[in-house]
Amino acid sequence: MSNIYLYAHGGSGNHGCEAIVRSTLDLLKDTPFEKKILISSRPNEDIKYGINELCEIEKDIMPYSKNSIEFVRAYLQLKLKNNYIPLDKLDYKKTFDHIQSGDIALSIGGDNYCYADIEKYIMLHEMLLERGAKTILWGCSVEPEVIKRKKVAEDLSKYSYIFARESISYEALKKVNENTFLIPDPAFTLECKVPVLPQNFQVENMVGINISPMIIENESIPGITMESYRELIDYVINETNMGIALIPHVVWSDSDDRKPLMQRLLRTVCWTEILHQISSIHWRRRSIRRLRVSIRSSSGLWTAAGIQCI
């Protein structure tokens, strides 16, 4: 009997990634796969958030011996041809060697094909195909301009199935892979759990705000992001009867949504309404439903909860 692998997962410190893992495993709970295995960059995060109770977890990158023909060949490729891919493949070899012909591999990274390290995901896909796995690009968004690159288009065409989570990606992907389907983000199926709301949380009358460090790092005018948010928050507090909820989406040490909130925003904004941070995925899912409007960089869970997104 075959196994199913969920790969290209950056860790559950990104609660959007966690949501995709949880919802996908829930959708797979009655399927006949022998094992359901998550290949993760940060297994400790997944264990922290209880993913190990839902499936097996394997670390993606594992140490390898340099006293091998494979290493020598890969090293020569780097030195003679400036080709780093063979060495990178060695990082993943030990884990991917568990995958056999007939196994299913779901790429669950969501928007991985929108960023600069696309070569890595093409490489991982190639390694899976070499081992005979059937591959699925699951719950994805893909930048249409990126698909115009020949190498990316060829890679995407090799997936057995692609499930795009919005229409822009769907229309672009359909041109390179006819087995492309439009379905909602799997996170939309997350089970709601009722939290205890803060005393001053105004049900269905809160503005939920997420500020990503990534936005700040890529701003064209230094400081414009925080200044815009400050003006927005001042307006909400002074001109409406709504409250503010600050909601972190990613809590990685190198990209923590809470840092710009605590270090830059709170020092300059005078609050007259309750300000609350929510970091648990279960807390977030139910609490997001209680919002009226959300302002964040991607709308995933928010639109799933029926919230207007800006």
Question: In words, what does this structure look like?
Answer:
The protein has 310 residues and is α/β, with parallel strands linked by helices. The protein has helices at residues 15-27, 43-48, 69-81, 85-96, 118-130, 144-147, 150-157, 167-173, 213-217, 224-239, 258-265, 281-289, 300-304, and strands at residues 4-9, 36-40, 56-59, 104-107, 134-140, 161-164, 180-182, 206-209, 243-246, 251-252, 255-256, 293-295, 308-309. The strands form three sheets. Strands 3-2-1-4-5-6-7 form a seven-stranded parallel β-sheet, with helices on both faces. Strands 9-8-12-13 form a four-stranded parallel β-sheet, with helices on one face. A two-stranded antiparallel sheet has the order 10-11. Helix 3 (69-81) runs antiparallel to helix 4 and helix 4 (85-96) packs across helix 5 (118-130). The longest helix has 16 residues, at 224-239.
